[in-house]
Amino acid sequence: MAAGVRAEWERLRRVAVHRPGIEMFFGLLDPYAALYERAFSRYEARREHDALTRTLREEFGVRVLHLKETVLDAADRDPAIRRRLVDWAHETVTIRGDRREVAEARRSMEQNADALDSLHFFTLLLLNPVLEVGRGHPHGGVDVHILERQPLANLYFMRDQQAVTPCGLVVARPAKRQRQREPGITRFLWEILGIPIVGTAQEPGTFEGGDFMPMGEFALVGTGDRTNRAGVCQFLGCAPGFDEIGIVHQPGHPLIPGDRPDPMVDMHLDTYFNVAGSGVVIGSEVLLRKARVDIYGRADGEYQPSGETASLYDYVRSKGFAVIDLSILEQLSYAANILCVRDGSILAVEGERVMQTVLLNLKRKAARDPQRYGRLLRHAEEDYRRIGNEGRFFPHRAEFSRHDIEVYPLHLENLTGGYGGPHCMTCTLERG
Asked: Which CATH superfamily does the domain covering 12-68+152-431 fall into?
């Protein structure tokens, strides 16, 4: 199965997703430690995810591949894949105790393997449990510890574990330890599907798919908190197939003190910039003007710096794109994280309730740390009052009509609590 994407505005044909499961439950026990923005309802989040995938399939004819179901179907059909899954799951489990007890527990796991369904082993990969055997139990009982090893609570953000270029798929290496095991699971999926892998980010590089934006003849790659310089260089070395690539430096937010930045407010390029069509982009202009772009050109199959730099705003304008500006509050509320499903048609977050929850969370942060978040909160509150008076909550804005952009709003009040919207939740495998 081939995978390739040249431009964000080409018709969306195939995506991979992961419906959040039990791993989200453990993430919600401590949302901040799980890299979530706030607490939310897991039940409602799963319903929202179902609505997202249903819209893709039924409204736009997109082929939606589910990570878990695809892996389990393959394991149940093919004994070799099942064996790989079982062995990997057993390797993932940590067993603590004396040598004899650990060996006995390992033997028991192997002996029981045939009686267990494939979902059991996939769940072990998600939860990464620690078993303590024979400690304090007269009959050798087992204690199970889950949170110690960081369940994959962010796996439903399927954008980040890879980037799909015109030349193939590049496997990412996430920057945060909570997410570093995710590309192993998604790579298993790509191998099952027969999707060629043209490169892999490796230490010391970090690279995440939310920082990659294909734009036709050129592409943008963000660098900052999630993608570092070494990761960018490794990505460029994979010959992604664009004539020009702009390296975008993550801007610090102007309303947060520079000596105490919060990189989560614009962690990926697609959290403050995105594509709505072949001539229209959307983003926070205050951040686009602050973000510096280093321009690289392709010569003899390699990318070399041209020596030119520009703001991201000026760079995309020079390429002929109109810019739909987002307010501070809209950007914080995932308005930039749209998913273009065909040229001039986008899936977007229905904004009013998300803005309310984002504001509530920001108020709590500002109460704890007014020096860091006070200005940002005041500006966001002003935005909310102005937008409410106008009666035009995102994405119900006249600018979209003026630019002939069709908008399909989605209620994602809970799913966005993990720090992302529909773009982050979908791995685009094929456009065109």
From this structure: L-arginine/glycine Amidinotransferase; Chain A (3.75.10.10)
